[in-house]
Amino acid sequence: MSGDEGVRGRSVPDPATITAMIEVAARAPSLHNTQPWRWRFDGRRLYLYADAERQLTSTDPLGRQLVISCGAMLHHVRTVFADHGWHTDIVHVPDERHPDRLAAIEFRPWSNPPASIRTLASAVEHRRTDRLALHEPQGWAELLPRLRALTAAQYVRLDVLDESVRPQLAALSRKFATLRGHDMFYDTELHWWAGHSDGQEGIPRTALASEAEFAQVGVGRVFPPGPRTARRDHFADRAQLVVLSAVRDSVPQWVRVGEALSAVLLECTAAGLATCTLTNITELPDGRDLLTGMIASPGIPQAVVRIGTPPIDDAHLPPPTPRRPVADILTLADQAAPAPPHRRNR
Fold it and tell me: Would you give the DSSP letter of residue 236?
């Protein structure tokens, strides 16, 4: 169904469209694939909430990455609705009466969205986190200005790290892995969410790199090792490393960081590039301080993204990671609110 056919005669999407779009947009990335978002449609507005039950309290004690994850899905939602002929107006400021509410969306029919929207909407379903080594990103000089414009629209800065800092970041990744390996709560969270899956959440082993494969990358979170794959031969990672920085630390700004991150990931995917978001370096003050000294722009580093070209002989995308059923994350106005989930020991 085209966008025009889907919106003709209506001022807001119908519940079936809301459900379908949320299900597609739920492919958004999140910390350890926790999918920490909830949505509610009241018949006129669509509300985004943070699901505090899915906060990783050792890895992410302030909930910063939880909110960034929700912001990434917010941008995914806007993208897929635009592709179906709906313009989305966003209110980002949290409601004091609903502290877990992050944004509200109002809809307007949009008969002529930019042609690029279709490509970006397609990228929603094709994007993957690629933890293996990558070649230098093709077309980088042409792509970089677009990425900077996309992040600037969210008041987020994008800086490209010099290749010379890669050894420092790799050493810091190893140091943090050692330090946090002594944290029983961090280790429990990591192994709860990574290396296995119940079919709805978490990072399956097939999405993780083996020890030998991770050694070729170096910069990133040390996960439980995955199986050795036949996807590509060993070579040193040459992906570009970019830093997304916020002008301040606040919940509304973290939402915008997530939106900017989503825009970068989708634009890169549409350009045929692979990406991997790294937040382990920004979780600890030493990492943020080191990154601050590596970038030219003032700001508070929030995430590092690896961007590169997969080998030409690697014709297979990494398998998609699992997602929760849409009924678990979306409540429609005429439905009873789902019972709060039981908090699991992690």
Answer: -
Query: Which residues have C-beta within 8 Å of that of residue 294, sequence separation ≥ 6?
Result: 159, 161, 162, 165, 243
- Confidence band, pLDDT 50/70/90 cuts, at residue 342: very low
Domain residue spans of the chain: 3-127+324-332, 140-308
Contacts of 192 (CB under 8 A, 6+ apart): 202, 344, 346
pLDDT of residue 98: 82
- Tell me how far the alpha carbon of residue 308 is from its chain's centroid: 17
Q: Report the CATH superfamily, name and number, of domain 3-127+324-332.
A: NADH Oxidase (3.40.109.10)
Q: How confident is the model at residue 188 (pLDDT cuts 50, 70, 90)?
A: very high
CATH fold, domain 140-308, is: NADH Oxidase (3.40.109)
Q: What is the DSSP code (8-state) at residue 33?
A: G
The mean pLDDT value for 237-248 works out to 96
Q: What is the pTM of this model?
A: 0.92
Residues 6 or more apart in contact with residue 295 via CB below 8 angstroms: 157, 159, 161, 243, 245, 301
Pick from 32, 26, 253, 20: which is nearest to 131 by CA? Answer: 32
